[in-house]
Design goal:
The protein is low in regular secondary structure. Helix content is about 15%, strand content about 0%. It comes from Peribacillus saganii.
């Protein structure tokens, strides 16, 4: 049986920051891999 894309994304595990390992509070399917504290983007 083929799983729907909605079910696939709902079942993904929570993402973790690649630097500190903290759970990232955002959509799991996005491309970011660092939490807000470790994401050092300067404007």
């Amino acid at each position: 049986m083929i799983q729907s894309s909605i079910e696939f994304f709902k079942n993904l595990p929570a993402k973790q920051c690649s630097e500190c390992g903290e759970k990232i509070e955002e959509q799991h399917e996005c491309y970011g891999n660092k939490c807000d504290k470790c994401n050092h983007i300067s404007n």
